[in-house]
């Protein structure tokens, strides 16, 4: 039987990864001390973690990119990722980075509702198209926004012109067999209902699954699954396996406006 805990254990397979959260937090804090305009801690709900930061470009925004962070729905928050806005910001996009209530305080289905609320809230603040990106568990949350049962109002859904799932999780059923499910508290029914790869995409959905070539095989499968399943349901799908990147270095390209990943997202 496959060891599902090992299959999802990115930190256990990347040397020095224990130091990464501190590195991310410091890098993001340095960015916030820079000259970029950032509106911080904008509330979009009633709980303490239902807040987002909005990073503005130097010119009137082309639209807004919403980036949803990962952490297996049970760790981290928006403050670790502020600098990831720079690539899209340099292309003229406003960038929204929301926090959300973590498991086990909230169920994954409840987090999905929170992200929909955050997107609706920022859509009232920034005109124009909306683009979505998410990493790992954030990739799950981003792709859930463009499923046929999306909780977004139709008017907001119509503004979403592209979604990028970076090392995303699109089939949650294997998580039922992991130790972390003691925190996630997924049931068989919720895991199936929350798996974008098992849902039908909204009409006209445009989505790219982007994953590092040096990632764990399960994360490669998760990206391949979404691209294959949704291609069969007439979504505009694309799969990119970027050589040399692991689950964490794959994010570095978001800081560079000239990177292939940023061009895919922001052009």
Description:
The structure is a single chain. This protein is α/β, with parallel strands linked by helices and 267 residues long. The protein has 10 helices and 8 strands. The chain has helices spanning 4-7, 20-32, 86-90, 108-125, 137-144, 154-157, 181-184, 188-193, 217-231, 260-266, and strands at residues 38-43, 51-55, 64-68, 94-98, 130-135, 160-166, 206-212, 236-242. Strands 1-2-4-3-5-6-7-8 form an 8-stranded mixed sheet, with helices on both faces. The radius of gyration is 17 Å and the shape is globular. The N and C termini lie far apart (43 Å). The model has no long low-confidence stretch (mean pLDDT 97).
Mean pLDDT value: 97
SSE ordering = HHEEEHEHEHHEHHEHEH
Helix content: 25-40%
Helix/strand/pairing class, anyone?
alpha/beta
| Number of DSSP-assigned strands | 8
Task: Offer a quick outline of the entry.
By secondary structure, the protein is of the alpha/beta class. The chain has helices at 4-7, 20-32, 86-90, 108-125, 137-144, 154-157, 181-184, 188-193, 217-231, 260-266, and strands spanning 38-43, 51-55, 64-68, 94-98, 130-135, 160-166, 206-212, 236-242. The chain has an 8-stranded mixed beta sheet with strand order 1-2-4-3-5-6-7-8, with helices on both faces.
Which characteristics define this entry?
alpha/beta, 8-stranded mixed β-sheet, 267 residues, globular, 8 strands
List the helices and strands and how they pair.
Layout: H1 4-7, H2 20-32, E1 38-43, E2 51-55, E3 64-68, H3 86-90, E4 94-98, H4 108-125, E5 130-135, H5 137-144, H6 154-157, E6 160-166, H7 181-184, H8 188-193, E7 206-212, H9 217-231, E8 236-242, H10 260-266
Parallel strand pairs: 3-4, 3-5, 5-6, 6-7, 7-8
Antiparallel strand pairs: 1-2, 2-4
């Amino acid at each position: 039987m496959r060891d599902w805990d090992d299959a999802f254990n990115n930190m256990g397979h990347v040397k020095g990864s224990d130091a990464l959260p501190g590195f991310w937090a410091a890098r993001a804090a340095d960015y916030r001390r820079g000259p970029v305009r950032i509106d911080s801690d904008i509330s979009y709900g009633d709980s303490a973690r239902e807040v987002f930061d909005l990073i503005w470009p130097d010119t009137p925004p082309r639209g807004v990119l919403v980036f949803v962070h990962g952490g297996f729905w049970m760790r981290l928050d928006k403050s670790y990722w502020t600098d990831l806005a720079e690539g899209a910001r340099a292309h003229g996009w406003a960038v929204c980075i929301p926090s959300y209530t973590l498991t086990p305080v909230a169920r994954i289905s409840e987090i999905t509702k929170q992200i929909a609320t955050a997107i609706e809230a920022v859509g009232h603040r920034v005109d124009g198209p909306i683009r979505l990106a998410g990493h790992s568990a954030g990739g799950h949350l981003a792709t859930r926004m463009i499923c046929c049962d999306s909780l977004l109002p139709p008017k907001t859904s119509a503004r979403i012109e592209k979604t990028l799932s970076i090392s995303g999780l699109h089939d949650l059923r294997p998580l039922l067999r992991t130790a972390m499910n003691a925190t996630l508290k997924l049931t068989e029914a919720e895991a199936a209902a929350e798996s974008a790869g098992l849902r039908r995409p909204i009409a006209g959905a445009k989505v790219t699954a982007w994953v590092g070539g040096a990632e764990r095989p399960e994360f490669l499968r998760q990206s391949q699954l979404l691209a294959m399943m949704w291609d069969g349901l007439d979504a505009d799908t694309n799969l990119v396996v970027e050589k040399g990147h692991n689950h964490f270095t794959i994010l570095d390209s978001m800081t560079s406006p000239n990177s292939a990943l940023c061009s895919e997202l922001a052009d």
